[in-house]
Design brief:
31% of the residues lie in helices and 20% in strands. It contains 7 helices and 15 strands. Bound molecules: zinc ion. Zinc ion (ZN) is lined by residues 10, 12, 16, 84, 88, 129.
């Protein structure tokens, strides 16, 4: 039985939030409004790349077009590069009230794809902002030569499946922990101090076969959603926790791999 670890990272504007009536996402208001910020995304990218180097894992980065134009992404060389919209659009319109025609969805995807292509490398996979796709998205991905998507949640150990047009969907696991509490493989609660690293290793130990897609954001390496910027000791502890998760899972015998190798 083989088990693969795929570490995915959303590289997008800091603490992104949907803004009603706006296509582009903002950043959480820290007293100076919701204009998008990218400084934590950039600082956190450096922290995360060091972590990945330390444990010998290559990441799969879903990069927002605007972010690729704004921060230095040269450290992504050798990692798998995907894309993540252009301005972190909610393509379903559910959170913003802004809905898109098929042409508009295609234009957003094309712009994000082109921007990441120009600034980093040609993306080989996609994750929808906020993990919400719609039918227009999946039907257009093949036109960009993108055949791997990870924009949904699924059962622990669920196999990747064909969305019906040759695009393979790789779900992020959602399951329950040892005490029956719901948890997903997004590391969000760990960064916020609400789950220990051992919960994610325990989750991995319960999967018998297949791909384990872990997920996080670069900004979350240096900034809490709820409490603002972390201090240096807190950044170090947060990075140590990611090392603990990854090395704990590798110790179970998982093979580290990228979404598209
Ligand atoms: Zn995102």
């Amino acid at each position: 039985m083989s088990r693969e670890l795929i570490f995915t990272v959303d590289l997008d504007r800091d603490v992104n939030i949907p803004i009603t009536g706006c296509s582009a996402a903002g950043s959480m208001d820290r007293g100076q409004g919701t204009e998008p910020r990218f400084s934590s995304a950039e600082l956190g990218l450096a922290v995360l790349l060091d972590v990945l180097d330390a444990v010998g894992v290559k990441g799969t980065f879903f990069v927002e077009g605007r972010t690729s134009e704004t921060i230095d992404c040269s450290g992504l060389s050798g990692h798998c590069v995907g894309f993540h919209g252009y301005d972190h659009e909610d393509l379903s319109g559910q959170s913003t009230g802004v809905t898109y025609t098929r042409d508009e969805v295609e234009s957003i995807l094309r712009r994000g794809f082109d921007s990441v292509s120009d600034n980093i490398s040609r993306p080989t996979c996609f994750r929808a902002p906020y993990m919400v796709r719609n039918g227009h998205v999946e039907s257009f991905l093949p036109e960009l030569g993108v055949f791997h998507d990870s924009s949904s949640y699924g059962d622990l150990g669920a196999e990747p499946f064909d969305l019906g047009n040759g695009v393979m969907e790789h779900p992020v696991p959602k399951t329950t922990d040892g005490s029956g509490r719901s948890m997903s493989a997004y590391l969000w609660p760990m960064h916020e101090g609400k789950r220990p690293p051992s919960d994610y290793v325990a989750m991995a130990s319960r999967m018998e076969h297949g791909q384990l897609i872990l997920a996080t954001h670069t900004w979350h390496m240096v900034e809490w959603r709820e409490r603002g910027m972390m201090g240096p000791d807190e950044v170090r502890r947060n990075a140590d926790h990611v090392v603990e998760v990854l090395s704990g899972i590798l110790d179970l015998g998982y093979q580290p791999t990228m979404l598209v190798g």
